[in-house]
Give the backbone structure.
Amino acid sequence: MQLVGMSLKIADYIAARAKPKIESFEKKAVRERKKVDDQQKLAELEQKLSEELEVIESKFDPANWLTDAARRAKQITLATHPIKYTNSLIKREESSCCHAVAGSKHPIGMSGCECISTASIAKPVVDVTGNAGALDVASLLLLEEEGKTLINYIEDRNAKPLKPFAQNNEQLREWISGLQQALTNENLSSHKLAKQIYFPIEQGKYHLLSPLYSSSLSEEIYTHIIVSRFSEEAKSARKAKNKSIYHDMVVIDYPRTAIQTFGGTKPRNISNLNQKRGGRSFLLSCAPPVWESQLKPPVGVKTVFSYNCFGRQVRRHTWFLQQYLLRKKNWPSTVEIRDFRKERVDEIVDQLVQYGAEIRNLEHFAGWTASSECRLNRAEQLWLDPHRAEVDEDFAMELEKNDWLEIVADNFGGWLNRRLKHKKMTLGDAERREWKAKAKEALEVFS
Amino acid sequence: MMDTLLVFRNITVENANAVAGMTWGFPAITHFLGFVHALSRKLRSWPGEKVELDGCGVICHQHQIQAVQPRSWGDYVFALTRNPLTKDEKSPSFVEEGRMHMNVSLLVPVTGRPEDSDERDELVRKIEQLALSQRLAGGTITGIKAIELHTLPEDGYEALKKFERRQLLRLLPGFALVQRSDLLADHTKNCIEQNPGSEPLDAWLDFAALKYEAKPVDDDPGNQTEVEWLAVPKPGGGWLAPITIGYRGISELYEPGKVARARDMSTPFRFVEAVHSIGEWISPHRVDGVEELIWRYYAEPESGWYLCRNKKQLTDNKPVIKRRDRYGN
């Protein structure tokens, strides 16, 4: 009978599994034959060898192999969210792992593009936990034909791919129910070591949620990062970047990633994919900006707009803006470029406000500008040490007038122009006035 | 509707959870909402004017994550604790935990308006007592600098705006977390337009990536010898970060009692996984009002989505930056 589609794949798979066994047997047979020269002993040997070959072949006869596979299927579990990632002490059989195909694609109130989860992946990879010796059964179940895996057929209780191999319906049913045990547990259960949290639905009503780790999503992120670092194209692009020569590809880095390991020294205990990843999984940074806290007010400087003071806080921002302006220096000034520039400058001005607020909040240093060591210019003194007005009347009067705002904003404009200057690019008065206007607007919060 | 604003100023937390879904560096927003919800439940037995705490805004002043870069560059790994031996006198297996110390402030909208000043003081004392005994994001609260209860001014829009502005300024220096899922949606659409094979995950990873491309020095596409490598702009402005915003059901909702070993046999049970989106760390003085910083629970139990939502994205109309290739096309 001609096998087609999935059935053909299954037959090929079993034959492929048989091949190495038979080959090694043949090699062994050749060795054995060489050792024996006596005719009678040779005949006995041939007899023994042919018996052994028969045993091997019958083991890999599709029907027999499938019966054995169905029997062993319960030693593994196919899941996209294995429970072992939550805590390696949780036994696979005791708790349910889940398959990501369930669940809706996006919430009613939001679009699918706004939420990233396993549902955002077109074809999530299925992970395998359990006995490594039964991995061949897992590979059988993950055989794919025209987008449908054997697992999909079994979930639908469709025995069509296996029918050509079965002797009767009963055997077929046995296979299906045996192989189904590789999917999730029928006994629904969680575990005391699993995460279980309450989520309020409405007044007084809650749902108990048990978050599970998504091995499929982790695999996608891992693949992306590894490809961007170690694929052949990426490596050659990085070499080109180091030498400043042209290359088609974009060099992609994922800064500030962390590695979370599962399984300690034995990653295979967690799941198959975990072992492929070496027990590691990447985490992306969601941390807030690092704010270098000011422990002391800027006493010894003439102006805070210097590299050591405010300049330090925003060095990353100014560098980024400079890079952008260099890229676009020969382009006509479009709305897009102006908007982007405006946003970057807004960020720097924000930092200015933060910086100012922090110095002003150093309450136990109040009056620091009055000390003899302070070389700061008057306008900046008025801005950064408002509490001095409580003891110093002249200071208070000057503070009221708000002239300092103009001067500080002007200082900022000049400083930013100097920071952004580059031998390939010049910035003039127009830009300086623009930066000054922005700074003045932002600094009004302090008046 | 918010009648009163409760401010927890400078809460120092030790050993908070630094891992949230596939991200690290700050606890998920669900932790803070849970803290406030627990507080709200405990206040239900308060004898005075009934108050209800609904939602929370988070401002981070300082953070210190217990992670190191073993090679002084590259990936970070978490510094783990040495845990007690098991009953067989062996070391227990590793289950990695990310920990961090942080200094945060919380803005909590309150419904209910205690008028009497004695009652207000009493309420603040009660809240302090309850808050100090709870955990925040899995970490211990070692101190709260101040807890303030401010009644919102009722004499007009201007007065309200002025009050909010003052409150926001007092939170500086610090950064508040707001939701920017709109940027993610726009960027995904742009990516798919430019390259039909793109997936939403590619767009999400773009926000975390730093890209460089070669650009000819004189902008001539034919010139491939003199180039400079310049950074590609990110899909949006501001300090954008991938964040975890809630959970998505991956199983059906099981009736109470059907799942063994659940924590509680009288609540419906569901298996879920983490859901991610994009958030922005923004300086508090840049938002128009306190409401823009507030996160609230948003659940769609029928479809199995349990999320936290913030209004910032609904009021901000800044367009996302459409990426062009190196020649401006």
User: Anything to note?
Assistant: Chain B has a mean pLDDT of 87. Chain B touches chain A through 118 residues (CB under 8 Å).
